UniProtKB/TrEMBL annotation:
Taxonomic path: Bacteria, Bacillati, Actinomycetota, Actinomycetes, Pseudonocardiales
Any one GO biological process: methylation
GO function terms (MF aspect): methyltransferase activity
Name this polypeptide is given: Methyltransferase domain-containing protein
Transferase recorded as keyword: yes
One Pfam family this sequence matches: Methyltransf_23
Matches recorded under InterPro entries: SAM-dependent_MTases_sf
Tree of life domain: Bacteria
UniProt keyword annotations, A-Z: Methyltransferase, Transferase
Transmembrane segments: none
Record's keyword annotation contains Oxidoreductase: no
Length: 256
């Protein structure tokens, strides 16, 4: 996963999520040293998480509805020299268990997925179903509260009010997202599957809306300092809810 930092030069966010995924890859490797960790990335898109996971030594199956995204994924995996470890599968999250098999994955990712699908409860159940007992399910989702503040900062008070009060946290019919969640709602969605227990909630992109361009454009040292601050802030409950995205790690319960 250290390759991810190299792959996204100059970014401030993502470090806290990467740390958690690195620990899960190490955990899977220690539990089953005889084979590579198996990851399933649902809505994995062009591979911004899947390719670093493959570079870290995982076998990664990426399920995505978009053929274009999967074509970019294959290109990216080839460029990173991990083409043989990445399996692209075109399909919907709803068909996940049929596509990749139930209960086989050591690590399941649903990053940027639950805000787009028709039925988030069904998608959460699908993520849980492909996780092996004890496996980690990592979910990253756009935060409702950060979106409220972002609209306020841009002077769009009507949109801010809509995101705050709409049951799905949308600003109107033109909103590209089907919903925005807060931390408790996201955790409840995963635990309602009956197969997952939430172990960690953290922010991703705590600083995104607030960081002045002078820092972003201040060169690698300034970006590194901001990334360190971002990682510290990610775990602070008061700041998590204003992070651009919420990250939840849930553990698949043993089967009865
Ligand atoms: C916002 S992108 C996130 C990409 C990647 N996971 C990341 O975090 O960078 C969302 C991806 O989910 C895919 N997607 C949307 N609905 C889906 C569904 N029902 N089943 C599978 N993939 C879906 C889209 O095609 C897109 O590639």
């Amino acid at each position: 996963m250290s390759a991810a930092a190299g792959e996204l030069p100059g970014t401030v966010s993502g470090g806290a999520v990467r740390r958690v995924l690195e620990a899960e890859v190490a955990r899977a490797r220690a539990a089953r040293p005889e084979r590579r960790p198996r990851a399933v990335d649902v809505g994995g898109g062009s591979g911004s998480w899947a390719v670093p996971l493959a570079v870290a030594g995982c076998e990664v199956t990426v399920v995505d509805v978009s053929p274009d995204a999967l074509a970019s994924l294959e290109r990216r995996a080839r460029e990173a020299g991990v083409h043989g470890l990445v399996t692209p599968v075109q399909g919907d999250a709803d068909q996940l268990a049929e596509l990749v098999g139930a209960g086989l994955a050591d690590l399941v990712l649903g990053h940027g997925l639950l805000e787009l699908v028709d039925d988030p409860a069904r998608a959460a159940a699908a993520l849980a179903a492909v996780a092996a007992p004890g496996a980690a399910v990592s979910v990253l989702a756009t935060s409702r509260h950060a979106a409220v503040l972002r609209h306020v900062l841009a002077g769009r008070l009507d949109e801010a009010r809509a995101v705050l009060t709409d049951p799905d946290g949308r600003y109107g019919p033109g909103d590209a997202l089907r919903r925005r969640l807060d931390g408790p709602a996201l955790g409840a969605l995963l635990e309602a599957t009956g197969r997952l227990r939430v172990e960690l909630v953290q922010g991703d992109g705590v600083l995104e809306a607030w960081l002045p361009n002078a820092v972003r454009d201040g060169g690698p040292a300034a970006v590194r300092d901001a990334a360190e601050l971002e990682e510290l802030a990610a775990g602070v409950p008061a700041l998590q809810e204003v992070a651009a995205r919420l990250h939840v790690l849930a553990r698949a319960l043993p089967t009865a």
